[in-house]
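Recall the central idea of this unit: under ordinary conditions, the amino acid sequence of a chain determines the structure it adopts. In this exercise we apply that idea directly, starting from the sequence alone.
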Amino acid sequence: MATHTRYAIIGTGNIGSALAILFDRAGIDVSIANTRGPESIPEFGTTVHAVTLEEALESDVIFIAIPFLAVEDFGKKLPKWDGKIVIDTTNAYYAPNAEAVLKGRLSSDFAAEALPGAVIVKAFNQLPAKTLAAKNPSAQSKRVLFVSSNSEDASTEVARLVEQLGLAAVELGRIDEGGRLIQAPNALVLRNLVEQPFA
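Accordingly, the structure predicted from this sequence is:
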């Protein structure tokens, strides 16, 4: 029997709110949580459900839309993250003292260490929040979103979700290869590309 994938957004700042808008527009159920509790979360629509952090962490696919420097402490919320896909939307480049924290690692590698057992997917980090949440420029076009993971299966699953959210997914392969391009400030960050149908 097929099971329903449970999605959760952790963080209600600019990116977390943009993600909530995308889910509501697409009519896909998602939980949303922060450290302040569900009563602090604004209403985004009928498919976006404010829950406690503990409830959100029970989900199968979890978006971390929190400051990069909060990732390490966030990883301690669960003893193990086995079986969960964690979508890393953070950008270490804009965080103070990030270079000292990373010590030459990619930010998604740091996230993988902080969330032991999780399958990390890098996505939803390369566009400003307002652009990410905006409607596509036309009914025929789709805004491009890049996806990278060391797990081919997880990349495929998240790319499928990207398409369901009304965007065009481009898979870049492994994080240490194509995924480098969407780690700020590299080549594909802040590129607002739109997929147009062939004439």
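The first strand starts at residue 7 and ends at 10.
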